[in-house]
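TICKET: design request
STATUS: open
ATTACHED STRUCTURE:
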């Protein structure tokens, strides 16, 4: 058992408070990682706000990056001293995992998002001897050390900057994967991205790799739209000032968009995105509203061949997609520094506030 300083959320709506916690000893398929950095994601903030039923008090964080300190007896992917990025976990045995789609693992919800425990019901984290919610995305990386599932690990070269690469574990792979793995736009097709946060901007970047004919960024904040344009958007729409459906019709010559990514989690925006599709167009639904949220769609409009596709983690197979993203970063094609604002771990509440105000697209905590 080892000690760590962790950002604990006591109850829904509460602040992060830095406290001492105890990590369980690693089981055969687990690894202890000394954290170097961790991205802060909207999912972390949704759980903290009570929008998702994760057991609190607990420790969140699911875009970790660090150095391996200790490995379980059956671990083969890494050894102590290896530098790693952390991502979601999966069972590796169900049909989806065997088919190369671990983001749709049969155990995904309890293992990653709402369980807070190992599959056998045991705690990975304790405070003053009492179990608290942990195992978030197989990691709970808002801590100086994390007990991590082996399947959540991707090894990277030691010379690479972990504080820059940390967001690859969720937000970046989600946006890129929604485009490359799910929508797979044909050369010259249009792509509209609703929301220019980290996920949406990652989708914009991926759109440039597909040579999209019209790459449209939609957001409420002018500074984010300016960044989207720098990253490759050919058109921007300020939804606070423009009528989005009319603007999309004008940009596409009335045809509608071939592909859309909805990253805001707003059901009204999702309806707009689906309505804006051209015949046989596809909308990747990435943004997650609170559980139970519903949206009404025009069924006869869908009969024109429109596809509405829910996407988790960009339908990523992390051992394949994350090394690809690292290579794109090294080649200068994935400008992660444009998205990141660094914060000391002790300033995690300031980082969360910067997300809510739009001051930061992707806060990265540095330990």
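STATUS: resolved
RESOLUTION: sequence designed for all positions
ATTACHED SEQUENCE:
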């Amino acid at each position: 058992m080892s000690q760590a300083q962790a950002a604990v959320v006591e109850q829904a709506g509460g602040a992060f408070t830095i406290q001492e916690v105890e990590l369980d000893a690693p089981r055969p398929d687990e690894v202890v990682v000394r954290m170097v950095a961790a991205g802060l994601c909207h999912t972390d903030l949704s759980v903290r706000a009570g929008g998702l039923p994760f057991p609190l008090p607990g420790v969140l964080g699911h875009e970790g990056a660090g150095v391996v300190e200790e490995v379980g007896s059956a671990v083969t992917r890494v050894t102590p001293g290896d530098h790693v990025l952390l991502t979601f976990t999966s069972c590796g045995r169900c049909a989806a995992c065997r088919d190369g789609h671990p983001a749709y693992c049969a155990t995904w919800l309890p293992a990653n998002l709402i369980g807070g425990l190992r599959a056998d019901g045991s705690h990975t984290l304790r405070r003053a001897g009492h179990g608290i919610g942990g195992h978030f995305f197989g990691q709970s990386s808002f801590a100086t050390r994390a007990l991590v599932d082996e399947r959540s690990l991707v090894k990277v070269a030691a010379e690479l900057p972990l504080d820059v690469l940390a967001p690859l574990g969720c937000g970046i792979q989600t946006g890129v994967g929604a485009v490359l793995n799910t929508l797979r736009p044909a050369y010259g097709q249009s792509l509209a991205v609703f929301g220019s946060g980290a996920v949406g901007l990652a989708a914009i970047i991926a759109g440039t790799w597909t040579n999209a004919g019209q790459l449209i960024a939609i957001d409420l904040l002018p500074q984010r739209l300016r960044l989207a344009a720098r990253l490759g958007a050919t058109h921007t729409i300020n939804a606070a000032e423009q009528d989005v459906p009319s603007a999309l019709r004008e940009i596409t010559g009335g045809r509608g968009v071939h592909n859309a990514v909805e990253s805001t989690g707003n059901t009204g925006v999702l309806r707009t995105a689906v309505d804006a599709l051209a015949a046989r167009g596809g909308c990747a639904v990435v943004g997650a509203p609170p559980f139970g949220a519903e949206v009404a769609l025009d069924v006869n409009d869908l009969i024109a061949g429109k596809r509405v596709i829910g996407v988790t983690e960009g339908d990523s197979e992390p051992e394949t997609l994350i090394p690809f993203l690292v290579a794109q970063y090294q080649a200068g094609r994935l400008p992660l520094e444009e998205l990141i604002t660094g914060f000391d771990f002790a300033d995690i509440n300031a980082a969360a506030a910067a997300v809510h105000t739009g001051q930061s697209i992707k806060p990265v905590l540095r330990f």
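CLOSING REMARK: The CA atoms of residues 91 and 107 lie 7 Å apart. The two ends are 21 Å apart (CA to CA).
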